[in-house]
Backbone:
């Protein structure tokens, strides 16, 4: 075992952190106050700078124009740029586009690559992913109402989606739909590329989320598919493989989220420590002198270090042995990192007193926007149960029983 | 000891609950989506209905036009109407006006009563309270920068206030200001009634709070006082008594908040249970069948019952023995009820999955807006330390030592 | 609602507390060091003093020679005498005898009363209760292996019991056994009085419990019943009523435990506060000056007050409306009070540093012996599930669904 | 970064685990029931087997007859053998002897090595360490009452020690004593080797610890030094260096404890999972089917993985950069690993129901004996404060302030 980070990687991390601090942090106040559209233009210039500095698409292989970082390396990178809610966007490794890029790299045919993948990699368009449905629980991903019925050489899609993140302004949507309702549950759905200007692809609403509808990339659409017709050549990957492809997409997707959350933790920790030494609670007495605050700092440091190591180990396992070998670890980090983040943010907010609940720091944004981390891509409870059941099956097997 | 509630009071509680459910709940969606101003008109009609049904000003003595409930009775009442974030407003017992009413009833001279108290009781005007300052920690309430210097028969006020809740649209502000910087710390400040249209009373900003500036009653102003001149006859109560009056105001003020939070808990609990029985996680299998959810329900029920009983006992002690006798109990309920509320809301939100973070239920509003409960009127930490030190002083006294 | 305690009751509580502090506390060190037998003689003299002072059998009706306290009053009494692990024994209201007394008062015929109840009330004999079985989970009380087969006018008992508290030295055991295996599950078992010197009633072992076998009242026997023959006239109550009678016994039994645990909490809290003011962490600097310790004190005070109020309210409900009306409350206090106790004891122990894990204070005894409180008479989990399911049934009913 | 374990080391770990499971586990029941002396003879034979298998003294350099494992390697080794409370003893790497070995290797002169170190390495004698004092808080290690006054070529020692682990039967004690009360606080004390048969080295008591006095290695002596005279040549290391040497000893000492606790966690986890699949809660329904138990398993797995990675990273830092560089990490793992262990043990115990509090599994022993882990070698609180203050000093420096 070796916990060291090679000097070249350290240098890359330092540069990424520096770019985020100098170029992205300054955009936050306007983002918090006015929303995504107000800063999209400036953010585009930051993206140009990222390209110029050779840090564009850190997670993507070199042959596709990225840095070709391993998952472990990207984990470290993500913890730096995740310090700002706009960090990943600046480097074009933000959800849901990064997941869609991976899908397209693996499954898109040449035409699909040219039409959808290339502009996505360039940052010319955005995309979205249509899986979750309002009437069906996310904890049961094979239970789904949207259908894609064949009609000639086309699919006709009908159904409802929500939590279609970044739907507003996206060029296309990867839609999960049942193409064969008679197949075994895990083989019923396929993934279909639907340009958002296709007739019958209808934005019904933007979900009001923790007090805001948001806008553009920073919003979540509710989409109705009503006799929405696309050619069958828009199917991504094999028919019936939708669920398996979604699982493949979600495994790394979850780890990407966890990596970013470590960055949120570090930012909150940093703000808490700064506040502690800068805020006077009496003349010549800093907040830092209080045991309560010292306790929060020690506990937060320990919990962040734990989450960081677990996330990196999971990434290392995926790099070396693949997604299946890392299944337990991914479930464990999903709920561990999300809950660590929420506890650390909560302490940092509390350490700021009244200032903590204002939008003068990013803490209130983290507090309310990141609460969803314990829900999306599998709730805490879904991941706890799934990892426990796999562990228990191994024990039951050992003792000859079926749990 | 007797835990029973007299039948007449039960009937009053039932009526209050019914009015909130039928008249106030329906206003919530628009309030969450568009803000306070959008519903202020309709809310005025609800207030008329409250008056017509004889439930106006539940906390105020009969000679001032209220119901004359004891604090214990108002605690039970508050838990009913606190189920909606608009409930207290509908009955004219909302912060900060209710605290200002109490101050004015106790300290206002005849002219002040006529000018400020009467329209406040009628619901014709709103008011605000200017105590907290951005540069000084709330944990040290005698350390304050705002001054009121005498000039002829006037005071000239200078300083900065924030967290002036409901400042926007308020007719007057009760301002805490140092009138004698040479006096012992607890006798430096006085309370002064400042009409908000007085020159030099300047609204600098509305504090962006958890993603929103809010508006009207549901907002928090930042106020600058710049050579703001008011006649000395606008002083409320004796000179130098500002801190003691604020303490008197805050004691019951805290208990009022706690009572309302029990209502928030009950609403969240109710939503969680309804969701559990209504949401299917598989065909014919409700969410309620899951042990995790059952655990949340049992733990929440226990914690709400505990908070409710502690709050009612504190109210009973204040009713019977006065504020000083209840000091420990008030500190204990302040942090207990606030944390219970946050835990219960968090569980209810989690039980709703993706729906929980939307604004389609009141849970996301509770989650982000009520987080401040652990901060205002004394943080969790301030109350823990203050009750512990009082307890330890009694032990140290007993053993002849000084802690 | 009224939280006051009448002066006469206050005086009784003061006297009970005083007797425990002056007569029972001094026996603790020898009890911790040498065990129950070493102090049984002295404890007998304390019992005589309790009788002489008119506080014998506080929980028993006057016509049976007790004080006739209501359950609420006994709750307050128990919190005083529960401050010592020997307190309840001194007043003859200790488990399992107190539960057996209640059973016998309600179900014993005249002969059974004379033979078993009277010497028990006098404190001349001890008794035990044989319900739990090693091979069957306590969470499923109708699943049981012990049988009592009729043979002429006798029962022949066969089976295994454990956690037969106070079995060593007991004069008789109330044994739960299946008398009709064909009956519906809740009507299979009966309760049978078995003198411990009956052939076939075999003490197999004393269960080593947290490092000690213990002895006498303070021990838990493992009993084998091997063709153990007793007359059918030894059956207590109707045939097939064993399970229902056990439930009746357990309802108040649980509340009795909870009341005692409040006493344990108060003792631990008291020790923590004393330690804080007496222990110097530097010359002239008491441990009490530390925020961490102050935090523990405040949190413990809040949690104890909460547990106390919930327990007293449950007792009040049982007194006024009976056991069925109090079912939810009893489940809620069972896990709330047990967990509160463990947290408070843990903090008090930690505040004592190295001294906390020694047997020089009662804290280490509380820490290890009371851990069982979260298990016996229904685990935390069993009570959470049972109360949640009752609550959810009411919601499901309301919405026309079956959870 | 690389999380892989080389195959040779994996093989060594497998062999160590196997030896513990086949040779040491079988001694536990007698150890729990009868104490250390009853098994000391058998344990000696296990030690011979360990020697024969070439696994003796894993933590000691090869030139002293050990395996020469790095701290990281020993961390992995310890997690295997720490699964039994007797594991480390079997390999001669148990506290307090392992710490004393390190001291002697670094500071003992030739005669001291021959007389004290060699028989200790051989396992022919045991030793103890006399630092903690009953009248002085462990949180303030430079505040100490024991003195060693020079008298000719001798020291005369006076004072009291407790928590002298393994004092009973030890051949010598390393005593911390003030040799120069006028020196600056950190340079007052020296370490002196005192054979336990020296007149004036008096065993006053064995501290009753969680219900047991214990015996031999598994006990904690209270020692009085009364005009105890030893030659000055028994001083270990330089005069006045006692505190610094103790710090050096404690750094790795803490990490050794943490490594062992990971083993305790794994054992408890293993027992919990086995119980879950083997225990039926209804015919054909294993305990493992319950979400509550599944939740405990998932949370425990996550927390153990976190603690393990943090401990290994701290060991790696010490191996590569030395103790000073690892100071923060050591404080963080001290409280993290201790609390993780207690939570995991608590859940495993609860999952066993009534069986969990018996001595039929090692869980009750872990529960009560390991509670001290949150206290010795620095309480949770001491480590939280010390790491937080170091972190905050870095921030204060950065912003030009002194916290």
Residues:
């Amino acid at each position: 075992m070796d916990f060291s980070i090679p000097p070249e990687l350290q240098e890359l991390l330092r540069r990424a952190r520096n770019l985020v601090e100098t170029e992205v942090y300054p955009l936050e106040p306007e983002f918090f106050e006015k929303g995504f559209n107000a800063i999209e233009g400036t953010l585009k210039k930051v993206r140009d700078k990222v390209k110029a500095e050779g840090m564009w698409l850190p997670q993507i292989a070199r042959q596709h124009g990225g840095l070709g970082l391993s998952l472990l390396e990207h984990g470290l990178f993500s913890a730096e740029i995740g310090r700002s809610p706009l960090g990943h966007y600046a480097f074009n490794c933000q959800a849901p586009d990064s997941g869609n890029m991976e899908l397209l790299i693996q499954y898109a045919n040449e035409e699909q690559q040219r039409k959808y993948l290339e502009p996505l990699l360039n940052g010319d368009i955005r995309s979205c992913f249509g899986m979750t449905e309002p009437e069906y629980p996310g904890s049961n991903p094979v239970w789904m109402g949207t259908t894609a019925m064949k009609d000639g050489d086309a699919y006709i899609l009908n159904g409802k989606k929500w939590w279609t993140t970044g739907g507003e302004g996206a060029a296309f949507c990867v839609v999960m739909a049942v193409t064969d309702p008679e197949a075994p549950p895990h083989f019923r759905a396929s993934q279909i590329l639907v340009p958002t200007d296709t007739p019958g692809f209808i934005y019904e609403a933007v979900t009001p989320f923790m007090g805001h509808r948001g806008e553009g990339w920073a919003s979540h659409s509710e989409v109705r598919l009503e006799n929405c017709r696309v050619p069958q050549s828009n199917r991504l990957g094999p028919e019936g493989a939708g669920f398996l492809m979604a699982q493949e997409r979600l495994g790394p997707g979850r780890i990407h989220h966890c990596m970013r959350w470590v960055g949120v933790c570090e930012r909150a920790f940093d703000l808490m420590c700064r506040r502690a030494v800068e805020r006077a609670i009496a003349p010549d007495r800093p907040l830092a002198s209080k045991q309560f605050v010292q306790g929060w700092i020690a506990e937060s440091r320990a919990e962040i270090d734990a989450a960081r190591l677990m996330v990196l180990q999971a990434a290392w396992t995926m790099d070396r042995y693949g997604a299946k070998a890392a299944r337990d670890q991914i479930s464990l980090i999903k709920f561990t990192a999300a809950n660590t983040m929420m506890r650390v943010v909560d302490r940092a907010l509390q350490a700021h007193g009244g200032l903590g609940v204002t939008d003068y720091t990013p803490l209130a944004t983290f507090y309310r926007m990141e609460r969803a981390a314990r829900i999306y891509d599998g709730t805490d409870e879904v991941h706890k149960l799934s990892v426990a059941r796999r562990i228990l099956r191994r024990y039951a097997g050992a003792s000859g029983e079926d749990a």
